[in-house]
Write a structure and sequence with these properties.
Elements (H helix, E strand, L loop, with lengths): L1 H16 L12 H34 L17 H28 L10 E8 L2 E6 L4 E4 L1 E5 L4 E7 L4 E5 L3 E6 L5 E5 L5 E6 L12 E7 L1 H12 L8 H13 L27 E2 L4 E2 L2 H9 L1 H4 L12 H12 L3
Bound molecules: dinuclear copper ion (CUA).
The site of dinuclear copper ion (CUA) has 9 residues, from loops.
């Protein structure tokens, strides 16, 4: 029956969670896999202990229940040294692996395995978006973290304002983003794909809208992405976009940077190459003309609490800004 129960629980877990895009039960890299192993090990141990204890309790209840009409007290037993030593030892023996396994993982996962080429990324949590900087590559981007597959990525995580927490469940984690502290976390993806993440520390009105995605690419695709990011489109591609750029310099440049232009603001996300991101507003919306226009029209209406205010842009201005920003590849 225990095997049956295990199979049943396993089937429920697999059916319920494994297909979910943010499930620790569907690990996609070595860090997440080690954590998944630890999780299943703990669940198995604890389930085993629970089953044995439940059996012993039920056994005692039935075996020593009151039977017949015999009066008086049952025999009073006052301690049994052999039994007491026995169950104390048994508990210690069971607890040792429960303590040793996480300690082993704690050391194994503290840093990427030595001897491998490690990609360094600085992660900064902001209300309510993520900044990603590749210090060795001269790239700053937001909300979409591109990484090569099969290579460890060392994240140095901090915050610009309040506590956040970086978490991409299928790749392993999570790690708090704390102002003034540089917290370390590394992860690695086996296969190309998009892995969803989410701020995991309540950080204000739009905590739930502080999403991120890790876009894992083959080494060649990642190289191509790096080259594009290092040589971004900075010039408007049409007259409409040129009007958009003029408006951007006037209205947006105090908060946003576009590399290769006079826009050097540091308050909001760096928008270099924003036209080639798949989403906007920290993963809330697909990156389309319509959604970007909707965002520009009134950001806090799309994302409650958004620190970008409603700029009361006219329809023509929004159209021009959309043409400019969507052209930044
Ligand atoms: Cu940032 Cu929750």
């Amino acid at each position: 029956p225990r095997r049956l129960l295990a199979a049943l629980v396993g089937a429920l877990l697999v059916a319920g969670c494994a297909r979910a895009p943010q499930s620790i039960l569907d690990p996609a890299g070595p860090v997440a896999r080690a954590q998944y192993r630890l999780f299943t090990f703990d669940v198995a141990m604890v389930t085993g202990i629970g089953v044995v204890m439940a059996f012993l309790i039920l056994y005692a209840v039935f075996r020593f229940r009151r039977r017949g009409s015999a009066g008086g007290l049952p025999p009073q037993v006052d301690g049994n040294r052999r039994l007491e030593i026995g169950w104390t030892l048994a508990a210690v023996l069971v607890l040792i692996p429960l303590a040793v396994e996480p300690i082993k993982d704690e050391f194994a996962l503290a840093a990427p395995p030595p001897g491998q080429d490690v990609l360094q990324v600085r992660v900064v949590g902001h209300q309510w978006w993520w900044e990603f900087e590749y210090p060795d590559l001269g790239i700053v981007t937001a909300n979409e973290l591109h990484i090569p597959t099969g290579q460890p990525v060392q994240l140095t995580i901090t915050s610009a304002d309040v506590l956040h927490s970086f978490w991409v469940p299928r790749l392993g984690g999570k790690m708090d983003a704390v102002p003034g502290r540089q917290n370390k976390l590394w992860l690695q993806a086996d296969e190309p794909g998009t892995y969803l993440g989410q701020c995991a520390e309540l950080c204000g009105t739009s905590h739930a809208n502080m999403r991120l995605r890790v876009i894992a690419q083959t080494a060649a695709e990642f190289e191509a992405w790096v080259r594009t990011r290092q040589n971004p489109v900075t010039q408007p591609q049409s007259d409409l976009a040129a009007r958009g750029q003029a408006k951007f310099q006037q209205t947006c440049a105090a908060c946003h940077t576009v590399d290769g232009t006079p826009a050097k603001g540091k308050v909001g996300p760096n928008l270099t190459g924003v036209g080639s991101r798949t989403t906007i507003a920290a993963g809330m919306l697909q990156n389309t003309d319509e959604n970007l226009a909707r965002w520009l029209q009134n950001p806090p209406a799309v994302k409650p609490g958004a620190l970008m205010p409603n700029l009361n842009l006219k329809k023509e201005e929004i159209e021009a800004l959309v043409a400019y920003l969507r052209g930044l590849k």
